[in-house]
Specification:
This protein has about 500 residues and is of the alpha/beta class. It has 4 domains: about 280 residues, Alpha-Beta Barrel (TIM Barrel); about 30 residues, no CATH class; about 50 residues, no CATH class; about 110 residues, Alpha-isopropylmalate synthase LeuA, regulatory domain (Double Stranded RNA Binding Domain). The chain contains 18 helices and 14 strands. Helix 3 runs parallel beside helix 4 and helix 17 runs parallel beside helix 18. The radius of gyration is 24 Å and the shape is globular. The structure holds 3-methyl-2-oxobutanoic acid (KIV) and zinc ion (ZN). The site of 3-methyl-2-oxobutanoic acid has 9 residues, from strand 5 and strand 6.
Length: about 500
């Protein structure tokens, strides 16, 4: 039996990984990485990509504009405060898109009015209305967010929403900015708007929930059950502080529990979810916890004998989703040392990774070296190799040689040789352990002294020959930078990850 899908039952998926997600400490992406992710989001068929905050920096502006110029399918949205220069910059950045949207926001809660904005309700209402009207002169599709809506007095929120719709906003987004709501309460906020706002049906009601109490997905779903038809979310739940509602959880909950959500549907190609999750984790250096719902390494692993036995007899005894629904099995492929350049490139292309000829050469050379060390090369290995290729074309330090001496009665020492452009620099140092010695030596060469805030090690793929993936978060003064690197040698992986953080810092500083 085929079920008909009607437009009124569609849940619009608004992805803000490139805006709210990228705002999360240590998750910054460079231009190329933003483009790659935008391609992946388009392949996954999200409806709206919030590509950035154009007024924030020239880099943000350029990324939003390039995404608007290149990405076909989803609407491309930029964020703006209710300030004319923000709106102008945003309008300019999103203009090239086939479908463009300007998202303006202004805080409405009493605490924000009193302490942040120092403005009365009437002034805020006036400013929002004027900004929405001004934004409409650049673009027909305007979204308005009363920031901290969930802590705004219900009567003022209703007044604001009515005025915003009258002024021309086609989408009204209700943010739980500080992740304070609980589901029954947040669902009621939405239900009440439907009761109190006379023109509510002239707009789509959207929600944007933060995860400070771990309730962002539950709150989003409660909102959907009360009439919201757009959900703002991010891949892996990336975002400010504890993050935003995770796209994969929202989409898979709607799909898996269609018995509860009736005819509601999303247009997301769920079989692209796993790849998108790996890409975000790899590009930002922010690791996905093993037991993370949907995309964590353990999400489909059945450890207990009794579970394994049940799954073998009938998968549905313990599995509510199939790994292939999120594209997990498609990732299991595999290149080996006999795979040629063409197969290598083809596989990367399928993953949305486009390398220049020079970058491909570097990645392929590393691929052959890796294939000598380990039998099967998985997609996750390929993402790492591609990233090394990309970094080779940046004005960055490249690890050329690493030797560590360590043991129970040896002072750990490391010799490191780095290449930067035409320069070859070598140094040595000792440390508390082999990793410490390697990182200290890198610091001696680069002159960039960082503080290791996080260090974690995970096997990337399966088997004893799996690559060890080191994820680091490093503080360089007030800049916090994350990166990941993988190798079959974990000291080398740590050195490469540290170097990647140093390179990202240099790129950020424009050096
Ligand atoms: O969390 C928030 O309130 C936001 C707004 C800009 C929508 O990110
Ligand atoms: Zn937010």
């Amino acid at each position: 039996m085929t079920t008909r899908r009607s437009a009124k039952d569609k849940i619009i998926i608004f992805d803000t990984t490139l805006r709210d997600g990228e705002q999360s400490p240590g998750a910054s992406l460079n231009h190329r990485e933003k483009m790659e992710l935008a391609h992946q989001l388009a392949k996954m068929k999200v409806d709206v990509i919030e590509a950035g905050f154009p007024i924030a920096s020239p880099d943000d502006f350029n990324a939003v504009k390039a995404i608007a110029e290149t990405i076909k399918g989803p609407a491309i949205c930029g964020l703006a405060r209710c300030i004319d220069k923000d709106i102008e910059r945003c309008g300019e950045a999103v203009a090239p898109a086939g479908k463009s949207r300007i998202h303006v926001f202004l805080a409405t809660s009493a605490i924000h009015r009193q302490f942040k904005l120092k403005k009365a309700r009437s002034e805020i209402l006036k400013q929002a209305v004027a900004s929405i009207k001004y934004a409409r002169t650049f673009c027909d599709d305007i979204e308005f967010s009363p920031e901290d809506a969930s802590r705004t007095e219900p009567d003022f929120l209703a007044e604001m929403v009515e005025a915003a719709i009258d002024a021309g906003a086609g989408t009204i987004n209700i943010p739980d900015t500080v992740g304070y709501s609980i589901p029954s309460e947040f669902g009621s906020v939405i239900a009440r708007l439907y009761d109190d706002v006379p023109n509510i049906n002239d707009a789509i009601i959207s929600v944007h929930c933060h995860n400070d109490l771990g309730l962002s997905v539950s709150n989003s779903l409660a909102a959907v059950q009360n009439g919201a038809r757009q959900v703002e979310c991010t891949i892996n739940g990336l975002g400010e502080r504890a993050g935003n509602a995770a796209l994969e959880e929202v989409v898979m909950a709607l799909r898996t529990r269609s018995d509860q959500f009736g005819k509601l549907w999303t247009g997301v190609k769920t079989e692209k979810i796993y790849q998108a999750s790996r890409m975000v984790s790899s590009l930002t250096g922010m690791q996905v916890q093993r037991n993370k719902a949907i995309v964590g390494a353990n999400a489909f692993a059945h450890e207990a004998g009794i579970h394994q036995d049940g799954v073998l007899k009938n998968r549905e005894t313990y599995e509510i989703m199939r790994p292939e629904d999120i594209g997990l099995e498609a990732v299991e492929l595999v290149l080996g040392k006999h795979s040629g350049r063409h197969a290598f490139r083809h596989r990367l292309k399928k993953m949305g990774i486009d390398l220049t000829a020079e970058e491909l050469e570097v990645s392929y050379k590393n691929f052959i070296a890796l294939a000598d060390k380990k039998k099967n090369i998985y997609d996750d290995d390929l993402v790492m190799l591609a990233r090394e290729g990309m970094e080779s074309s940046m004005p960055a330090y490249v690890l050329d040689y690493l030797h560590v001496a360590t043991g129970t009665s040896t002072v750990p020492t490391a010799t490191v040789r780095l290449i930067k452009g035409d320069e070859v620099i070598q140094d040595a140092s000792c440390g508390d352990g082999p990793v410490d010695a390697a990182l200290k030596t890198i610091e001696r060469i680069t002159g960039l002294n960082g503080k290791l805030l996080d260090f974690s090690l995970q096997a990337v793929t399966i088997g004893k020959d799996a690559m060890g993936e080191v994820s680091l978060r490093v503080g360089f003064g007030s800049d916090v930078i994350s990166a990941k690197a993988a190798s079959t040698d974990i000291v080398e992986a740590a050195a490469k990850a540290y170097l990647a953080c140093s390179n990202r810092l240099l790129i950020k500083q424009g050096k």
